[in-house]
Amino acid sequence: xxxxILIANRGEIAIRIIRACQELNIETVAxxxxxxxxxxxxxxxxxAYCIGPQVSSASYLxxxxxxxxxxxxxxxxxxxxxxxxxxNTRFAEICNQHNIHFIGPAPQVLRIMGDKAGAxxxxxxxxxxxxxxxxxxxxxxxxxxxxxxxxxxxxxxALGGGGKGMRIISTPAELESLWSIIKAEAxxxxxxxxxxxxxxxxxxxxxxxxxxxxKSGKIIHLGERECSIQRRNQKLIEESPxxxxxxxIKEQIYSAALACAKAIGYTSAGTxxxxxxxKGNFYFIEMNTRVQVEHPxxxxxxxxxIVKEQIKIAAGLPIDINQKDIVLKGHAIECRxxxxxxxxxxxxxxxxxxxxxxxxxxxxxxDTHLYPGLFVSPYYDSLLAKLIAWGRDRxxxxxxxxxxxxxxxxxxxxTIIPFHIKALKSEIFKEGLLNTNFINNLL
Length: 443
Hints:
This protein is of the alpha+beta class. A hairpin with a 5-residue loop joins strand 12 and strand 13 (about 280-290). It has three domains: about 5-105, Rossmann fold (3-Layer(aba) Sandwich), CATH 3.40.50.20; about 130-200, Dna Ligase, domain 1 (2-Layer Sandwich); about 205-440, D-amino Acid Aminotransferase, Chain A, domain 1, CATH 3.30.470.20. It is built from 15 helices and 22 strands. The longest helix has 19 residues, at about 170-190. The strands form six sheets. It has an eight-stranded antiparallel β-sheet, with helices on both faces. A five-stranded parallel β-sheet has the order 3-2-1-4-5.
């Protein structure tokens, strides 16, 4: 097992990794930008190093400075968390070059699955794929394929992710007018202007499957998550298991997720994501080769610590859990508490946390880096906390979540807690009739 791990991230996920390391008796090294000098993860780690100014490009994305911190601290491994460098092939390769274990899959896996168009090509004969194209090299080819699969279509960045780098196209004229713009946006956002097309599936459900794979080739799944409640293609509420999901379809999705992970030789924790239409047809959209923001709902229904499993797998230990032993017990719901004004199209806000009261009681978990006096800056993601509720069934989890949301108090900055209360009280949510158009129907 590792003796010391550097955590190449910030906020609540950095704290989550520190806690897993403490339980495994592993020393931790935090990194921080100048804006995060007083952040909670800095004080909880055994060591901490400033790696640059507030902007991400000069700090949390600064590979030379992060590697230097790892070498100075003699960290044996780096855990990237999610976001920033978590799915960066070059970062994983550089870690390997410096004999530092990258806690995640091998660089070649990151390369294939990080290229969304490439992943489609790799998996096209193995699992159901959304109709579309591979990498497009011309507008003429894009127009031809769009005409064949039928509008509307999604024009997507090959290296996109996190809900970014995609646009719905409804007509050939719209594709012609936006082609150069979207390629330029992809180049600016992801450093790569390649794009591809997918058929736009109207109002699907977004279902994902958590998988674990070790270095001996053993791969298991930990059930599914419902992630259909989204804004700007980014998730706000997740739950496990998915409500009202036909058992036959569920088993088919599990099989497809395992086939995907086995085909790529996956090691570490990862998530295979699918869209499910109203006819019961499901399609692979991408694989996230990292821990997910919503991993706690799976932890609560399986009683498996996914972050600890990641670390053990990276250290070469086998998965000591068998598929037949995985049983989803009860129901868990997660609400992302963001610093946003939901009445103004979920616009991010900044400010100082004047006071905070965290909810508690049976079945409630809060993952957060907040404390009174913390300034929420504009430089990073708006996620302030993750509130997770577990119940013996979905209704008990829903009621507990409502209780916790109403108890959760953050003063000094706007959050989307009122949105979550409205969502969980809605008849659509109560009935479990979810799809990606939930927010438009609610608001």
